[in-house]
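Example record

One chain of 326 residues, shown exactly as stored in the release files.
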Amino acid sequence: MAPVLLLLITAPLVAEFLLGDVTLASLPALVIFIPLYGAGAVLIREVIRRKGGGWPAILVLAAAFGVIEEGLSTQSLFNPDYAHQHLLSSGYVPALGIAIPWTVYVLSLHVIWSIGTPIALVESMFPRRRTEAWLRTPGLIIMAVLYVLGLAAAFGTTWLEYRYVASPVHLIGAALIAMILIIVGMLLATLWRPAPAAQASGRAPAAWLVGIASAVAASIVVLAPHLPTAALRSLTILIIEAAAVIAITLWSRRAGWGDRQILALAAGALFGYAWHAFVNLPAFDSASVVVARISNVVFAALAVAAVWIAARQVKTHPSRMTRRRE
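Predicted structure tokens for this chain:
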């Protein structure tokens, strides 16, 4: 149960606390965040790994997770006053009821950081069990129930704060998109299999180079909302993500790609969240600047410790994939 428990707590700590949206003063909110983010990450990871699927399927289900949370639970995709930050004021498309820059940005946060990074980090702590199922059917059912409770709690607290419910058309549209993503993710889990090692010429880049590239890409994504125009904000994120998908796909087909590079991707993403928290104020609690900065230090230190532990595990207990490719 160790990896399950770690993922349950890691996902919300990365998604909300490392980002800096909330501080140590909001630790009681883990009562909601653990079922929402933690159970969601465990559920996605378990469903895909049970089917023998890999990262493409995990990331597609992560996108479905984002649509469900932001479109159906908190409804930030449609609420013009969500977090009192006027998130829909730029790039708003009336026919869709969403602002393109906010939609692209927040769904990217969920795919990369709420789900992808915590799974990669915790799997790196248990490299020999990286592709194995961690739960049996009863455990999977418990995670599903917890996740539904987390969604309901997030909806309830958001409604109490903003008294907002999106139109039926918007809610149905979000539900349909989430369903399509879930179907695509499940098909990928069933049909997609990793390419054989060394299928492409050359050798995979060293882990430290992958980590630097990941940190730069993550930093650009978190800085994109500060760009001057809606089109530039959206295009910047999409171009960076497309480049990352292409690069990782090509690198992962080369000899030498393994656990170290996967951990480096997660470490770079954590770095992007960690430094960005220091230059922002919390969005969802009223803690003082001092408390906010202490929180930033605490959660950045936890991220560094987690990467260090994972790196030691990857070095001493490499997965079968790494042993085969190296």
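Notes: The radius of gyration is 19 Å.
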